[in-house]
Design goal:
58% helix; elongated; mainly alpha; 0% strand
């Protein structure tokens, strides 16, 4: 489950992406969700559902419309937007007013001007530069290591991933198999 979440984070934080990576994001997120539902059903919440469903959906929309990855929507852009709004609100005497010209009205006006008016009346190419650098775990440098971090045997397979094959079958089928139930049940 952690490997799928790691792979999903790597895929949805990319700015330059392609169709294959966008479709892989959907598969990886769905597998993460299915494994979590099978074994930790009580821990499924809105955040888990969002990672599994909303993130791949919006990533595919963003790619189909603008040909960029979901990583373009970063905390840096949100933070710069909020700091800009905050500086705009502190410049006026009416920022503490609760009437029609209060903070809420000012914030919505600033959002409208930045999101709709300026792009329509003054179109400019995007100047956003992503600062995200995807980092691979240190064991990826070793040629005899699996993607889970375990060493591969002589046959080129990893015993940990071989043992997890039954879990992956359950996640793909979205139900527990008899073989996995036998593994999980205690021996009497």
């Amino acid at each position: 489950m952690a490997q799928y979440l790691r792979d999903a984070c790597t895929l949805f934080n990319e700015v330059d992406t392609n169709v294959t990576e966008v479709s892989n994001l959907s598969k990886v997120c769905k597998m993460y969700f299915n494994i979590l539902v099978l074994f930790f059903e009580q821990n499924v919440n809105v955040t888990v559902w969002t990672v599994a469903n909303a993130t791949p959906y919006h990533a595919s929309l963003l790619f189909s419309k603008y040909k960029v990855g979901y990583g373009i929507i970063s905390l840096q852009t949100k933070e710069s937007k909020h700091s800009g709004i905050k500086s705009d609100l502190t410049l006026t005497n009416r920022s503490r007013s609760t009437g029609g010209l209060g903070k809420w009205w000012q914030m919505m006006r600033v959002n409208y001007v930045r999101a709709f008016y300026l792009p329509e009346h003054q179109p400019m190419p995007s100047s956003y530069i992503s600062h995200f650098q995807s980092r691979l775990p240190p064991f990826f440098d070793k040629p005899n290591c699996c993607k889970c971090g375990s060493e591969r045997n002589e046959a080129g397979t990893c015993t940990v991933c071989e043992e997890c094959a039954e879990i992956l079958v359950c996640a793909k089928d979205q139900k527990l198999t008899d073989g996995l139930l036998r593994i999980l049940k205690p021996v009497l």
